[in-house]
Design brief:
It is a single chain. This protein has 124 residues and is mostly helical. 80% of the residues lie in helices and 0% in strands. The protein is built from five helices and no strands. It is flat.
C-alpha cells in the first residue's frame, strides 16, 4: 500500500535510491543497539523491513518497464533474458555472500555449541 501511494506521488527511481540509503543508515544504527533494548531493536527492525519492502515492487517493476522500453525501441522482447540474467546474478551473489560468511566466521574463530569469544561475538 505504501509503495503504491509513494510511487504515485514521487519518482520511482528516487524512492528506490532513498529507501536503500535509509535502510543502510538504519541497519548500521542497529549495530549500536544494546542487547537489553528490545523495544528499540524491534523498532529498528520494523523500520528496516518497511524500507526494504518498499524497494521490491519498484525493483521488479523497473525491470519490466525496461523490457517494455526495449521492445518499443527495438521491436524485440527480451523479458526472459532480462529476468533470467537478473535471477542468475542474484543467486550468484547469494552464493558468494554465504561463502563470505563462512570464511568470516572461520577467521573470527567461531566454534559451534560453545561459549563464544568476544571476537566471535563481535563478528556475529
Amino acid at each position: 500500500i505504501a509503495c503504491t501511494w509513494l510511487t504515485r506521488l514521487y519518482d520511482k527511481i528516487k524512492i528506490f535510491r532513498y529507501t536503500q540509503l535509509l535502510a543502510f543508515v538504519v541497519g548500521g544504527a542497529m549495530y549500536f543497539v544494546q542487547p537489553n533494548s528490545i523495544v528499540l531493536a524491534f523498532t529498528f527492525y520494523i523500520v528496516v523491513t518497511f524500507l526494504t519492502d518498499i524497494q521490491l515492487p519498484i525493483y521488479w517493476a523497473s525491470i519490466a518497464e525496461s523490457v517494455d522500453y526495449g521492445e518499443m525501441k527495438t521491436g524485440q522482447r527480451v523479458s526472459g533474458l532480462a529476468f533470467g540474467g537478473i535471477l542468475f546474478f542474484q543467486k550468484f551473489g547469494m552464493g558468494l555472500a554465504g561463502g563470505f560468511i563462512g570464511i568470516a566466521l572461520a577467521y573470527l574463530d567461531y566454534q559451534p555449541s560453545v561459549e563464544q569469544t568476544p571476537q566471535a561475538l563481535w563478528g556475529i
